[in-house]
Design a protein that fits this description.
Acyl_CoA_acyltransferase, four-stranded antiparallel β-sheet, Aminopeptidase, alpha+beta, GNAT family N-acetyltransferase, 7 strands, globular, GNAT_dom, three-stranded antiparallel β-sheet, 6 helices
C-alpha cells in the first residue's frame, strides 16, 4: 500500500497532514532531531543518546509501529511527524524491529521504559482495547517549534481516529508544559505525574486520561 494524502478538510493555515503506511527515512531524522533534548528520552537512554543513536532507535520504532497496526502522520512540509501505536496489538512475539529498538535502548533502558508505563497506572478497558490507539511520539523540527505544528497535527490525528471509531484513552506527556497544552486543546485531564526520585521537583512523565 502506498503512502497517501487523505482528503479531509485542513484547518486554517495548515495543509492536510499526510498519512503514511510505509516508512520513509526522513521520518526518523525528524524524530531524532526533535527528541534529542526530550527529558523522557534522556531518562530511557540515561543521558547517553546522540542524534545518530536516536535515528537508529526511531527507525526501528517507526517500522515496528507500522508492522504492528499503527500509523505515521506528518505535516505536508515534513516539519512534523507523529507516530501512533495500536494498543490492540496483543501479539507478544517481538518482531525484528521491536527487538532492534529494545536492543538500542539496552537492558536498563527497556526496564526504565516499562517502569514508566507501569508507574503511570493506566488501566485499559479490555472490551475497548482493540479500538484504542496511543499517540506515542510527536516530533516537530526545532526551527519549526512554537508555530502551531504540534497542536494542529495532534488535533487533526485525534479527529482522524475518532472518525474511524478508535479511542486514544491516554497520553504520556514528557513535561508539565506539554500536559498543560494537551489538556484544554484535546480534552484530557492529568492522571498522574511520575517522578524518578521522591525529592524531584519535575516529573519524568505526565500521564493524561481522556475525559469521558
Amino acid at each position: 500500500m502506498k503512502n497517501n494524502l487523505e482528503t479531509l478538510a485542513p484547518e486554517t493555515g495548515f495543509e492536510t497532514p499526510v498519512v503514511f503506511t510505509e516508512p520513509e527515512s526522513w521520518h526518523w531524522k525528524v524524530l531524532a532531531k526533535a527528541f534529542i533534548t526530550d527529558p523522557t528520552i534522556k531518562f530511557w537512554f540515561d543521558g547517553k543518546e546522540d542524534e545518530d543513536l536516536l535515528e537508529s532507535f526511531f527507525e526501528a520504532v517507526v517500522k515496528d509501529v507500522l508492522m504492528s497496526g499503527g500509523t505515521v502522520f506528518s505535516s505536508a512540509d515534513r516539519k512534523a511527524v507523529f507516530v501512533w501505536a495500536w494498543l490492540g496489538n496483543t501479539d507478544q512475539k517481538a518482531n525484528t524491529f521491536k527487538e532492534k529498538w529494545h536492543g538500542i535502548l539496552g537492558e536498563t533502558g527497556v526496564k526504565r521504559y516499562n517502569w514508566l508505563y507501569d508507574a503511570g497506572n493506566i488501566h485499559l478497558d479490555p472490551d475497548k482495547v482493540q479500538k484504542s490507539m496511543e499517540p506515542a511520539y510527536l516530533a516537530v523540527l526545532p526551527e519549526a517549534q512554537g508555530r502551531g505544528y504540534g497542536s494542529h497535527l495532534f488535533k487533526w490525528t485525534l479527529d482522524y481516529f475518532d472518525r474511524k471509531g478508535y479511542d486514544a484513552p491516554f497520553i504520556l506527556a514528557s513535561t508539565r508544559r506539554s500536559a498543560k497544552l494537551y489538556c484544554p486543546l484535546l480534552g484530557y485531564d492529568v492522571c498522574k505525574e511520575v517522578f524518578v526520585n521522591s525529592n524531584d521537583t519535575e516529573p519524568i512523565g505526565v500521564f493524561l486520561k481522556r475525559k469521558k
